[in-house]
Structures are given as C-alpha cells and as structure tokens.
Specification:
It is globular and about 65 Å long. It contains 15 helices and 9 strands. It has a 7-stranded mixed β-sheet with strand order 5-4-3-6-7-9-8, sandwiched between helices. The protein has 2 domains: 16-126, Orthogonal Bundle (Arc Repressor Mutant, subunit A); 146-289 and 306-342, Vaccinia Virus protein VP39 (Rossmann fold, 3-Layer(aba) Sandwich). The longest helix is centred in the middle third of the chain and has 24 residues, at 146-169. With 344 residues, the protein is of the alpha/beta class. Helix 2 packs across helix 8 and helix 5 runs antiparallel to helix 14 (292-304). The protein has helices spanning 15-22, 26-37, 39-45, 50-57, 61-73, 88-93, 103-107, 113-124, 139-142, 146-169, 188-196, 210-220, 257-270, 292-304, 312-322, and strands at 77-80, 83-86, 178-182, 201-206, 227-231, 245-249, 276-281, 325-331, 337-342. The relative contact order is 0.14.
C-alpha cells in the first residue's frame, strides 16, 4: 500500500469514472420495467401514485420508490401531485402502441442476470446476490466471510482515497477532539480526517472480520498512533462513548428506513450535548427528481443491499425525529455530499 499524503487530491478529476461504475445497473432496471413489466404502456392510460403502481404490478415499496425516482431523473416520468405521468419522450418511445416503440431493441437484453434479478427484488424487496453471482450471498451476509470482506473493503478503500480528502476539507472540527467512524471499513475516512485535522484522535467501529482488515490498512498507512479500531456490532450494541463527532460515510444507504432511524438514534444517544453527526453519502434531492447520477447509483444499491440513496427531505426528517438540530448540507466530490447535524 502506498504511503500517500491523505491531504492531497489527484491532478485530474476521476468523477466520470465513479459515475460510470455507479450507473452500471440503471439500464438493467429500465430494461426490466420496459420489457418484463411493460410499465410505461400501463402508465400511459393509468397515471398512478407509487402505491397504485405497487398494487398493479405486485411490487414492494422500497425498490419501486428507487425505480420511479430513476425514471423521473431520466425524464421518462413526471409527477403531478402524487401521481406519475409519462413525459412526451416516454409516450413516443416506451409505449407499445407507438410507432417509435423501442421495446424490442431492449428485449434482446432482457435475460441479463441483473435485469432478471430486478424482477425478484422489485417483488420481494430483498436484495439479490452481489453482482448476480450464483455462489455469492447477499452483500450483508457475504461481509461475514473473511475473503469477501477483505475484497469488498479494498474496493471501498480505493474509492475513499479520492472521497476522503474531499470530505476532510469540508469539515470544521477545531472545537472537537474525538472522532468515531462508524462501520468505517478500512479506516480510510478516519485517516483522511485526522490527516487534515492534526489535533484529532479517531477510532473506527467495525464488526469482525472487517475490524482486522481495518487494523492492517491503518497500520500500513502509518496512522496506528492516531486511529484505533474498536470491534463491535452497531446493530447489537450501543455505540462507544467518549466521542464528540460521529461519521456515517457511505453506510446508511445500505439499509432500509427502520434501520437507518435505529442507527441515527444510537448516534444521538452516544453523543454528548453539542456533539456532531456527519452523514457522508450520495443524496437524492428533496423532490426526488435527481440528480440522475445519484438516482442511477441508487438503482445499484437497491439491487444488492437493503437500502437506497435517501433524499435530503427523508434524511432531514429522520434526523429531526431522533432529536438532532442545526442541520447543514454541502457537496463534497463525485456526487457525494455531507449532511451535518448537531445534538442540542
């Protein structure tokens, strides 16, 4: 592992590369809706709200919400009140009765594994196997296996090399001392934050076997004297005390709404008065009309995890519900953004 200065950014901007990777599954979701469900033909004569669409096609709420957000961001749907209507683009090209119907062109790819997985995910609400591999468990269970945990953590670590310094530069932590990176993977974000804020001491809270992976990465980067690792299960136990800043970086998008609320409540309980919670993630806008690249990423997350990219309105409501106040928001890098909330 290179001993890179974690306060640096590359000379070129790799955002387009992140967007290509994060958008990989979006077209498979479009194909599933167009070919397998024929969603757009039905909506042409039956504008409906999300609940009506779920009833008609026997779909579950979370993946349907992601699908409708994606198609709105793609300019195929528009919302009038709570009802979804086709745009002129969709009416001309995604409806069977149109002479310009493009369905057969997509039908040639309808048996792609991810495309077929989407039908199951939409109907059950349960994630598919990671990457549609037949010998791989769903992501959360696969992370309990050392080999998969090491591989996946390394993938997230290389992403963090770019995202971490941008996050650290966005923070003003001069009045804080102890930083807890919850489900922090390799510890890359904790290392980047202490590199930019030399007065801080940090810890990564991770479940075995990822805790051991984190310890190796942190030591190899030369931060073992400033970033420790605390082994634990954020679902089964309280968060460690003694920290005045908490970070969830690219974590909450892996979990469904009740779990997100549970984790935010645990953070609120563990933080002291005046403590700061940081949610670093890709966020959908409050209206759920985009940005397109985040809606595409949400489609990928919906397929392989129990979560999605949450909207700003959803996150603000969850934070206020558990007691946080003084919310602020700013963009960081590669379509990620930072939502900060303080405990009164």
């Amino acid at each position: 592992m290179n001993s890179l200065d974690l306060t640096l950014q590359p000379q070129t901007d790799p955002t387009i590369l992140y967007r290509h990777r994060d958008a990989l599954y979006a077209v498979d979701l479009l194909t599933a809706a167009l070919v397998w469900l024929d969603l757009f033909t039905w909506l042409d004569t039956h504008p409906a709200d999300k609940e009506g669409i779920c009833r008609q096609f026997e779909l579950t709420e979370r993946p349907t919400d992601v699908m409708l957000t994606l198609f709105t961001a793609m300019s195929f749907l528009e919302k009038h009140g709570e009802q979804f209507h086709l745009t002129p683009l969709a009416r001309e090209h995604l409806v069977k009765s149109s002479p310009w119907f493009i369905g057969p062109y997509y039908a040639a790819l309808k048996d792609r594994p991810v495309c077929k997985d989407y039908l199951t995910v939409l109907r059950t609400g349960k994630p598919a196997n990671f990457g549609s591999a037949k010998d791989t468990k769903p992501w959360a269970q696969a992370m309990e296996e050392p080999a998969f945990a090491a591989q996946f953590t390394a993938a997230m670590d290389c992403r963090g090399i770019f995202l971490g310094p941008a996050l650290a530069r966005a923070l003003d932590l001069r009045d804080h001392q102890r930083f807890l990176d919850i489900a922090g993977g390799s510890g890359i974000y904790a290392c980047c934050v202490v590199a930019a804020h030399p007065h801080l001491r940090a810890a990564v809270f991770e479940k075995p076997p990822v805790d051991q992976v984190a310890m190796r990465h942190i030591a190899q980067r030369g931060y073992a004297d400033r970033v420790s690792v605390v082994a634990g299960d954020m679902f089964a136990e309280a968060l460690p005390s003694g920290f005045d800043v908490h970070l969830f970086s690219n974590v909450l998008h892996d979990w469904e709404e009740p779990v997100v609320k549970q984790l935010l409540a645990k953070s609120f309980q563990a933080l002291p008065s005046g403590g700061l919670l940081l949610v670093h993630d890709a966020h959908i806008n409050a209206e759920k009309t985009g940005p397109l690249h985040v809606a595409e990423y949400s489609a990928l997350l919906m397929n392989i995890t129990e979560g999605k990219c949450y909207s700003m309105a959803e996150m603000e409501a969850y934070l206020e519900e558990v007691g946080f106040g003084r919310l602020s928001f700013m963009a960081t890098a590669a379509a990620r953004s930072l939502l900060a909330a303080w405990k009164p």
